[in-house]
């Protein structure tokens, strides 16, 4: 990160330099160097993060979080208008050209992650246009689709991504929409044969998109028989550009109001004998000749399908990243509010919420957990970026590793985020229920993370199969992936622990042994299951297999954090980061009594409470400064979480800025229906 960019970023945080008395008090107890801490953490972000952050911040009229209770059409107008203005600016600066989208993944990542800090709807709109529509054309198309890619990147074409159907989500192979080739006209004919075949929940479809990428079952005629060739992707126009109405044979509608993200126009689309050119087929892995012959270098339908889907799995990577980030955003809001809010106390001056041990436990333990998740997710994003150019190379095992990691991260991070955001809302009392706290919007956004890109329980099964396959390799003496190296510990009983609770290496080894023990325990239970392996895999999901997957996730995040610590040069910064990791250790150990009582012994296990309380006291001195280490713009912190800690002033400003807040209601006379009316 350049010195110039760092200065610009600090200028964005200028609110911190107008401190309230509460902020001065909090910073007076801090023990680490803020600038050094920021440098260490920000180096884990995508390379272009701050350039795109600056690009976004320069634009005026960013949709304001206070509009989250606006009407649906107003939200959609704002998000679409802003995304067009933003993309034009980013295209001009070279961040979203076809070359950048294809080769410099950091540019795309930076735009999405930076935008997520400002507004969730526009972030999602950006993801639909670039991460789904443009990326699919790039990854699954060929040279004949290059113009579609250019038009999508420059926003000459607004696109959408049609995979999910009314009756199919996670089971992509089961989708029903058909694309049948007609060699007499050299066209594919799209049909939605049933109600469940209607494409549904498609972002940007209802009111915005000109074109769509549609996944359908491809059929050709072979020897007079209609033969299915599996799921393929097509890029096609859906609206007349002169009138913005759908073409004949295409019916488009709105999915209506949602729990959140109403700034995104999710829609449905139904096809009836809709004809598209043969060239609409995205033909990187398979094609249909003019005379109707199906051609592919990959004979296995399963492998073709896997190749097509593997390039799209980045969604889970970014869900992990965004869930960890918005959890830390929520925690920062709640922690900053607690540094101002006072309740009860033994003297005339009430006690700060942040000084109550229970409040510290509620927030600090979760802050430590999601700080660990945040680093794990940042590493996963970089792994994904590095692997994408060689995604389909023969013998590339990293794709399988990333699939397993993203599956577990998406599940466990989004689950934890749901409870964390809600806990932050409750920790702010009645004011947490206000729209202006932003918790309602953040929680709705994260609920989406727990829903799309695959059911999280199903995704943990994907991760479990990866681990079980690793166990088979280990038993045969074969090399296992880096994230499964703990299997070499081959634990069949909980290990004895006689070490130091302050020793990160020893505690990390204990968690690796736990992952190995739980993996072997699950494998043993499956092998001995009376109903057989397949039935056992289903019946053991609630306990043995889920525990195995959770331990894998914990071990990956811990090892990522340990590697991060080796990059931190400043001793004061490294010390405070170590305290976060230690608190995460203690909390997880205390929450998993089944394993750790056996590993530590009951007397050692009971000592965890003392270590947790000790960590809370130390973090209390530094927690406000730790919230400033995170790269969040102040406008994304709502009324309660601004860095200057002037909570009540800003809260009132937000409320009074709302239209009509002090005006007499138009229906005021109803208040006097049963009394003497006053004029």
From TrEMBL:
One Gene Ontology term from the biological process aspect of the record: fatty acid beta-oxidation using acyl-CoA oxidase
Transmembrane residue ranges: none
Cofactor: FAD
Catalytic residue positions: 453
Primary subcellular site in the record, as a coarse category: other
Binding-site list for FAD: 164, 203
Keywords recorded for this protein, A-Z: FAD, Fatty acid metabolism, Flavoprotein, Lipid metabolism, Oxidoreductase, Peroxisome
Name listed for the protein in its UniProt record: Acyl-coenzyme A oxidase
Organism (species): Euplotes crassus
Domain Acyl-CoA oxidase/dehydrogenase middle: 160-273
UniProt cross-references to Gene3D superfamilies, sorted A to Z: Butyryl-CoA Dehydrogenase, subunit A, domain 2 (2.40.110.10), Butyryl-CoA Dehydrogenase, subunit A, domain 3 (1.20.140.10)
């Amino acid at each position: 990160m350049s010195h110039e960019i760092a200065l610009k970023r600090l200028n964005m945080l200028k609110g911190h330099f107008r401190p309230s008395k509460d902020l001065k008090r909090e910073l007076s107890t801090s023990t680490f160097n803020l600038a050094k801490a920021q440098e260490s953490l920000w180096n884990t972000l995508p390379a272009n993060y701050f350039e795109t952050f600056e690009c976004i911040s320069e634009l005026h009229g960013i949709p304001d979080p206070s509009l989250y209770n606006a009407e649906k059409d107003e939200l959609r107008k704002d998000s679409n208008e802003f995304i067009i203005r933003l993309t034009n600016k980013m295209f001009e600066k070279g961040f979203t050209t076809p070359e950048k989208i294809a080769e410099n993944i950091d540019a795309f990542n930076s735009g999405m992650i930076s935008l997520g800090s400002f507004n969730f709807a526009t972030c999602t709109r950006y993801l639909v246009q670039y991460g789904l529509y443009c990326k699919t054309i790039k990854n699954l198309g060929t040279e004949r689709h290059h113009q579609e890619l250019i038009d999508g990147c420059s926003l000459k074409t607004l696109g959408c991504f049609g995979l999910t159907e009314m009756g199919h989500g996670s089971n992509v192979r089961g989708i029903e929409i058909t694309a049948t080739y007609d060699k007499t006209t050299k066209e594919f004919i799209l049909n939605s044969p049933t109600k469940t075949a209607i494409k549904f929940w498609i972002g940007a479809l209802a009111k915005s998109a000109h074109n769509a990428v549609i996944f359908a079952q491809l059929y050709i005629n072979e020897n007079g028989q209609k033969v299915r060739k599996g799921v393929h992707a097509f890029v096609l126009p859906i609206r007349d550009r002169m009138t913005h109405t759908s073409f004949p044979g295409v019916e488009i509608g709105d999915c209506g109001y949602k729990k959140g993200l109403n700034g995104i126009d999710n829609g449905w689309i139904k096809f009836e004998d809709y004809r598209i050119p043969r060239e609409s087929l995205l033909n990187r892995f398979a094609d249909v000749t003019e005379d109707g012959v199906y051609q592919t270098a990959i004979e296995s339908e399963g492998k073709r399908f896997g190749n097509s889907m593997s390039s799209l799995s980045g969604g889970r990577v970014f869900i992990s990243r965004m869930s960890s980030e918005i959890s830390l955003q929520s925690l920062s809001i709640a922690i900053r509010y607690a540094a101002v809010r006072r309740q009860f106390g033994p003297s005339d001056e009430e006690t700060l919420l942040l000084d109550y041990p229970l409040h510290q436990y509620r927030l600090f333990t979760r802050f430590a957990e999601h700080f660990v998740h945040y680093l794990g997710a940042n590493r996963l994003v970089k792994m994904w970026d590095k692997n994408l150019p060689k995604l389909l190379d023969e013998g590339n095992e990293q794709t399988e590793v990333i699939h397993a990691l993203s599956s577990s991260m998406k599940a466990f991070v989004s689950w934890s985020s749901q409870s964390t955001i809600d806990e932050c809302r409750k920790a702010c009392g009645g004011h947490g229920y206000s729209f202006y706290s932003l918790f309602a919007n953040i929680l709705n956004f994260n609920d989406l993370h727990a829903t799309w890109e695959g059911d999280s329980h199903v995704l943990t099964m994907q991760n479990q199969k990866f681990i079980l396959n690793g166990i088979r390799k280990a038993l045969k003496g074969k090399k296992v992936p880096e994230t499964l190296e703990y299997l070499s510990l081959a634990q069949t009983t909980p290990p004895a622990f006689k070490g130091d609770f302050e020793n990160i290496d020893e505690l990390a080894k204990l968690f690796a042994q736990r992952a190995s023990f739980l993996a072997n325990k699950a494998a043993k239970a499956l092998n001995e299951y009376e109903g057989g392996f397949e039935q056992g895999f289903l019946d053991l999901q609630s306990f043995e297999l889920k525990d195995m997957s959770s331990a894998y996730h914990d071990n990956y995040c811990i090892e990522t954090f340990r590697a991060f610590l080796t990059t931190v040069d400043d001793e004061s910064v490294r010390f405070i980061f170590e305290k976060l990791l230690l608190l995460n250790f203690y909390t997880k150990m205390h929450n998993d009594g089944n394993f750790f009582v056996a590993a530590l012994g009951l007397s050692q296990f009971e000592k965890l409470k003392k270590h947790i309380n000790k960590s809370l006291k130390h973090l209390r001195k530094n927690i406000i400064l730790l919230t400033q280490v995170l790269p969040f713009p102040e406008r994304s912190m709502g009324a309660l979480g601004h860095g200057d800690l002037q909570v009540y002033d800003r809260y009132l400003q937000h409320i009074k800025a709302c239209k009509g807040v002090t005006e007499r209601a138009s229906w005021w006379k109803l208040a006097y229906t049963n009394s003497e009316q006053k004029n």
